[in-house]
Write a structure and sequence with these properties.
Layout lengths: L2 E9 L2 H17 L4 E6 L1 H5 L3 E5 L8 H6 L1 H18 L1 E7 L2 H14 L4 E5 L11 H8 L2 E4 L4 H4 L6 E4 L4 H4 L6 H7 L7 E6 L4 H18 L5 E7 L5 H5 L8 E4 L3 H7 L2 E5 L2 H9 L3 E5 L3 H10 L7 H6 L6 E3 L5 H13 L1 H16 L6 H11 L2
Parallel strand pairs: 1-2, 1-4, 2-3, 4-5, 5-6, 6-7, 8-9, 8-11, 9-10, 11-12, 12-13
């Protein structure tokens, strides 16, 4: 018999932990009595998660890195699957981390066919391996999609598919007005802010910062700009400073990421969720990414999308330039920045195109909609 007062939530990385924490907060308003166990990190623990395994142990990026940490992932899989089967929860909410979760869903459905499984963040079948749809429909009861075109993919399949809107819309929050921001960090109102988001993982920093350092040296002749590097909470400031950055470059915590993006004239941004944030604030950007060579070649064989950044994918065309692997050079960064700063028509066109993408992202309240979906199945 299923335990109606028990819910499992599993999140395999930091971004999933953040989403899980928000969903838990929304769940508590309707069901404060519910017990929640699973895989999570700091955010979910604060909201009352009883952790079976910690998200921090699973934060790997790229195919090569996943292979290297195979045994950690296997240990997490065994721990969570055994715990769920023993506890017999009414439902399991699985957040992102698609490969891990589809295998977990398969095992849970085999052992506990009455337990309902809700997936938050659809696997990116539009990018690679579309045949995964068969397993998704078979093992998940409900799919909560965050991109506007994903619901259409499942229209001919028997699955409860809901477009909940993008959770980033709920995160948009400005705490400092422009004047306050400029004053707090000693910036100049007369200069255009160029912000750089090098990544939130150590391997991303190690791949991106050498090129970013070269870019900073190459563009310093422009007297009309000021440079900011946004530091993720995962990265110590000393890690960035060891690249020998000039004192004129401000390193600002990601606590102010929305202010940084909103008040910047141009954003240099590593590929990932942050590219969508640039669309929300409608600031023209240059997307970059560099990974382990093995991971890149495997990804090239699997991923079939023309673009890698979400604004471009949603728009179905290039809005923001993408500098990937060997194209990610200081020369190309300088060229793209100068194109935007020296051509008002191009700059304004980019802003209008990003505004159109922003309007497709849905309304706020994704976490509440996911919580409502979970409660529908308990």
């Amino acid at each position: 018999m299923m335990n109606k007062n028990l819910l499992y939530i599993t999140a395999g990385e930091e971004s999933g932990d953040m989403l899980g924490g928000e969903v838990m907060k929304a769940l508590r308003t309707s069901r404060p009595d519910i017990i929640i166990k699973g895989i999570g990190g700091k955010k979910m623990t604060v909201e009352g998660l009883l952790p079976v395994f910690r998200t921090e142990k699973l934060g790997f990026m790229g195919f090569y890195e996943l292979i290297r940490h195979y045994f950690v992932i296997k240990k997490a899989f065994r721990a969570i699957s055994e715990s769920i089967i023993i506890d017999k929860p009414a439902a399991v909410l699985m957040i992102d981390f698609s490969e891990f979760h589809i295998k977990l869903a398969k095992k849970i459905k085999s052992a506990l066919p009455e337990t309902k499984i809700i997936k938050y963040v659809s696997p990116q079948v539009w990018a690679s391996r579309p045949k995964r749809i068969d397993d998704i429909v078979r093992f998940y009861d409900c799919l909560c999609c965050i991109l506007p075109f994903e619901k259409e993919i499942y229209k001919d399949h028997k699955i409860d598919c809901r477009f909940v809107g993008h959770p980033l819309l709920d995160k948009y929050r400005i705490n400092l007005l422009y004047d306050e921001f400029i004053q707090k960090f000693g910036l100049s109102e007369e200069k255009t802010l160029i912000s750089i988001f090098p990544g939130s993982r150590k391997q991303e920093i190690s791949k991106h910062m050498p090129v970013i350092k070269e870019f900073i040296e190459a563009i310093k002749s422009r007297q009309d700009i000021e440079l900011i590097i946004c530091r993720s909470s995962n990265i110590k400031e000393s890690v960035l400073k060891r690249y020998g950055l000039p004192g004129s470059v401000r390193i600002i915590s990601s606590d102010y990421q929305w202010e940084i993006m909103s008040y910047s004239g141009v954003i240099l941004c590593k590929s990932g969720t942050s590219t969508l944030q640039t669309a929300i604030v409608e600031t023209p950007s240059i997307v970059f990414y560099k990974v382990n060579t093995i991971s890149f070649f495997i990804a090239k064989m699997i991923v079939k999308t023309k673009f890698i950044s979400l604004p471009n994918i949603i728009a179905g065309k290039q809005i923001n330039p993408e500098l990937i692997q060997s194209d990610f050079t200081s020369e190309n960064l300088v060229s793209e920045v100068n194109t935007l700063l020296n051509n008002d028509d191009i700059y304004n066109l980019r802003k209008n195109e990003l505004k159109a993408v922003n309007q497709l992202l849905g309304e706020q309240g994704a976490s509440a909609k996911v919580a409502a979906a979970v409660l529908d199945y308990i």
